[in-house]
């Protein structure tokens, strides 16, 4: 505690970690927008399935977001241009462009970005 109070570096590090956790919680709230994230059942098994489903959705969201970010970094040769702060700020936890209400437009004639070569 004394180190935390006397040195600014651990405070910055802790604050950065808290920001990541808050962003993760924001993604949770976004995914579970219905009923404000409250479990719909008191049944332990239903709650467990809901929790595992939430984790699966988070991981899918991060994968779907990580691949195009990696592709842009590779295609634009950004890796050499990014400093430590830029790299620390990279995160797949963005969702502002996603419609959570189930409307998905898919062009089956367009190749999937998942088939692209990644880093």
Determine the fraction of residues in helical runs and give it as a percent range.
Answer: 55-70%
Low-pLDDT parts are none
In one word, what is the shape? flat
Strand residue percentage? under 5%
Terminal CA distance reads 41 Å
Mean pLDDT: 79
Q: Supply the number of helical segments.
A: 4
Order of helices and strands: HHHH
Could you say which structural class the secondary elements and strand pairing correspond to?
mainly alpha
Number-wise, the strands total 0
Supply Rg.
19 Å
The largest sheet is: none
Q: Please, could you describe this protein's structure?
A:
The protein has helices spanning 2-6, 8-31, 44-75, 84-89. The mean pLDDT is 79. With 119 residues, it is mostly helical. It starts with a helix and ends in a 30-residue tail after the last helix. Helices cover 56% and strands 0% of the residues. The chain has four helices and no strands.
């Amino acid at each position: 505690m004394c180190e935390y109070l006397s040195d600014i570096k651990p405070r910055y590090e802790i604050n950065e970690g808290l920001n990541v956790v808050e962003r993760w919680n924001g993604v949770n709230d976004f995914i579970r927008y219905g009923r404000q994230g409250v479990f719909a059942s008191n049944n332990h098994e239903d709650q467990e399935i809901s929790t595992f489903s939430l984790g699966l959705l988070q991981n899918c969201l991060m994968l779907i977001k990580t691949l195009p970010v990696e592709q842009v970094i590779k295609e634009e040769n950004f890796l050499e241009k990014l400093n430590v702060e830029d790299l620390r700020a990279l995160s797949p936890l963005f969702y502002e462009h996603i419609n959570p209400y189930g409307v998905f437009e898919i062009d089956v004639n367009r190749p999937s970005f998942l088939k692209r070569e990644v880093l």
